[in-house]
């Protein structure tokens, strides 16, 4: 059992999410930085899909009622045990009666706190993840509050001092670069608007959370003239309702892009210019509010053809010193592995198939060989 003394700003229970319910309006949920979620679990000996705590901007204060192994990954939110500093991305022991707390945030936005045995809240629709808008899953369907007592499963005896090499602790760089594939509605904007979209400088707006990240600062889009279809309305950014893939980029009114994230709605009436590849969605979850105001920003640059693949070096293998050397496959979904595909959402893969009229049996080869037109957010 872990007692919550202070909950932090917004701390929720998350795992790798609950895919398969978008058709009834229930989003994926799960950790916004999936690499960090999986890495934290593996450091303490858990299955990579075990439930962890996702802490946004500010860490919680937790009292342990039994011995446990803990790891904190993702944002640089330095942990402390009874006031003594501990390393991030490294497993460390917390004894019965000790208190885990955190220093101020130094980098990133979301930290992932894994405890050996995992957070043992009930499984709802195949996941322990919290979807706060629907009061679903997690701990009573909400973020943590002072006085909560979190059940913890039985650990597997992980070792103290396991660590992830510093060069594999993936965080947004400077400049930030987010790769995307143009979507089914790209034809709705003019050629010049498309070029400006990738060339302009964008900054993270204050409206950025688990539902989506809004960006501001670029030029408004120009649309190709049309006769509005029945039900779409007069605004050129409106369409007759369509499904929203995870990572899709909608631009209401053509002014400020919104990248839809883990708790986003599953469909609506705004057009989408494209979809951020899921391997890069982790980076969005680590962007602080107003990123770029101190120099730089997030810009968009067309990069032509992009191979969609899991970044090199993501492998998990134990080496001398119990260092996790690779984190391979950490950025890939079990469903994607079963399909033999790289880390591309099914809905995005369907878009590619429709755009290029690729027979389904050829799609795997096309993705692996890298013939998809793509672009990237860059700042």
Topology:
Elements lengths: L1 E5 L4 E4 L19 H10 L8 E5 L4 E4 L3 E9 L2 E3 L2 E2 L6 E3 L4 E4 L4 E9 L33 E2 L12 E2 L12 E6 L8 H9 L1 E8 L3 E5 L21 E6 L4 E3 L7 E3 L6 E4 L1 E5 L1 H8 L12 E9 L11 E2 L3 E2 L9 H6 L6 H11 L3 H10 L2 E7 L1
Parallel strand pairs: 12-23
Antiparallel strand pairs: 1-4, 1-11, 2-3, 3-10, 4-9, 5-8, 5-10, 6-7, 6-9, 13-20, 13-24, 14-15, 14-21, 15-18, 16-19, 17-18, 17-20, 21-24, 22-23
How would you characterize the overall build of this protein?
- With 379 residues, this protein is an alpha+beta fold.
- The chain has two domains: 2-161, no CATH class; 177-308 and 344-378, Cyclophilin (Beta Barrel).
- It is built from six helices and 24 strands.
- It has helices at residues 34-43, 191-199, 278-285, 334-339, 346-356, 360-369, and strands spanning 2-6, 11-14, 52-56, 61-64, 68-76, 79-81, 84-85, 92-94, 99-102, 107-115, 149-150, 163-164, 177-182, 201-208, 212-216, 238-243, 248-250, 258-260, 267-270, 272-276, 298-306, 318-319, 323-324, 372-378.
- The strands form five sheets. It has an eight-stranded antiparallel beta barrel. Strands 7-6-9-4-1-11 form a six-stranded antiparallel beta sheet, with no helix packed on it. A five-stranded antiparallel beta sheet has the order 2-3-10-5-8.
- It is elongated.
- The model is unreliable at 292-297, 299-323 and 325-379 (pLDDT under 50).
